[in-house]
Amino acid sequence: MINKQELIYATAFIDAEGHIEFKTRLKKNGIGKIYPCKSIRVEVTNTEFKPIKDLHKFFNCGSISYPKRRLMKNGKLGKQQIKWSAGHRDCHRVMQMILPFQKSPLRIKTAKQIIQYYK
């Protein structure tokens, strides 16, 4: 059973720190043919590991990665980040769960597009 409080927290965290993408891009296959390809994903990146691992555990989908540390202006390496991302069907399932609790109009529009695409 899904805990409503945790779902609201996860939705707020995705709204604040995450990225939801629904785009059509041109892709080239191995023989050079160019065709339209859908890019559907949700991802959240942060330097705090626990909230990201909790998202992965809560939604039980997607994957966790550790992006390469970036070089800052002062020449030092930035803090290590962690990224949770879910694509296509996993993203669709996450959008169905969080849509009722989203607040950002742009993210609501994108979530509805993803849900409609899979109907």
How would you portray this structure in words?
The protein is an alpha+beta fold and 119 residues long. Helix content is 41%, strand content 28%. The chain contains 4 helices and 4 strands. The chain has helices at 4-17, 49-59, 88-98, 105-117, and strands at residues 18-28, 34-46, 63-65, 82-87. A hairpin with a 5-residue loop joins strand 1 (18-28) and strand 2.
Instruction: Pick out the low-confidence regions.
Output: none
Strand arrangement in the largest pleated sheet = 1-2-4-3
**CATH architecture grouping:** Roll
Helix percent reads 40-55%
Q: Quote the CATH topology.
A: Endonuclease I-creI
Which range does the strand content fall in?
25-35%
In whole angstroms, the N-to-C terminal distance is: 25 Å
Mean pLDDT: 93
Number of helices: 4
Q: Which structural category fits the helices and strands? A: alpha+beta
Tell me about the largest β-sheet. Answer: 4 strands, antiparallel
* Tally of structural domains: 1
The CATH superfamily turns out to be Homing endonucleases
Which term fits the overall shape?
globular
* Radius of gyration, in angstroms, nearest whole number: 16 Å
The CATH class label is Alpha Beta
The tally of strands reads: 4
H/E element sequence? HEEHEEHH
